[in-house]
Design a protein that fits this description.
Blueprint lengths: L2 E2 L7 E5 L2 E6 L2 E6 L10 H17 L3 H7 L9 H12 L1 E2 L6 E2 L18 E4 L3 E5 L14 E8 L4 E5 L9 E5 L8 E9 L10 E7 L2
Helix pairs in contact: 1-3
């Protein structure tokens, strides 16, 4: 039962129906009591939570990269939320507690700049070596576009990345990874950002690489 302490125009404490009254730092307040959920763990809810947590765990390791990679799609939302939205809808599969991230369909950058051509990745001596073919002049690609690289280690839940690498015309780059990555399988991505930073390409998934 609610109690009125200052007349009918004053605040009240306690509960009246689904309205709860109280005082916080001398300020009277009222709030609606949330409705009880009959089954807070329906199959649909579990599935959505699993997809969300799986995507979040992946993207949280690369926030700096996402700020560059999804800048073109941060309309009325942050770059991170734009990346969450895309990957939730395109890069998760499975149901319930068996949800997994489809790395091949994930994007860590998204935009209209011409992307990677003939990209591949290998490992030697604590690094990931990237190679690609200079496709300057194809579409809006320029020699001066900067390469972006990302290596995601699922077992360590850690990403190593570079958002302003060598020019597109360079055709090769070695990204050093931590020593404790040796023996781990990592997921590798590459993309480009224009020299002025205004345009980015869709990332290209270069596959899974074992660090040696």
């Amino acid at each position: 039962m609610g109690k009125i302490s200052q007349g009918v125009l004053g605040g009240f404490s306690g509960k009246v129906g689904n309205v709860v009254g109280g005082t916080w730092k001398g300020i009277d307040y009222m709030r609606i009591k949330p409705s009880n959920v009959a089954n807070p763990r329906t199959a649909g809810q579990v599935n959505q939570r699993s997809k969300f947590s799986t995507t979040l765990k992946f993207l949280q390791t690369m926030k700096g990269f996402i700020r560059v990679g999804f800048k073109s799609y941060a309309n009325r939302m942050s770059q991170f939320n734009a990346a969450m939205s895309y990957n939730l809808n395109n890069a998760v599969s499975g149901t319930g507690t068996n949800v997994t991230l489809d790395y091949a369909n994930a994007l860590v950058s998204r935009g209209g700049l011409t992307g990677v051509f003939n990209g591949n990745a290998t490992s030697s001596s604590n690094d990931v070596e990237f190679k690609w073919t200079d496709n300057s002049g194809s579409g809006n690609a320029k020699e001066t576009d900067k390469a972006m690289f990302l290596v995601y280690n699922p077992s360590k839940e850690l990403s190593i990345y570079e958002t302003a690498g060598p020019d597109r015309s360079t055709e090769a780059y070695k990204l050093i990874v931590p020593g404790d990555f040796v023996g781990d399988d990592v997921e590798v991505y590459m993309g480009f950002v224009s020299e002025d930073g205004k345009s980015v390409s869709d990332s290209e998934y270069l596959g899974s690489v074992t660090i040696v």
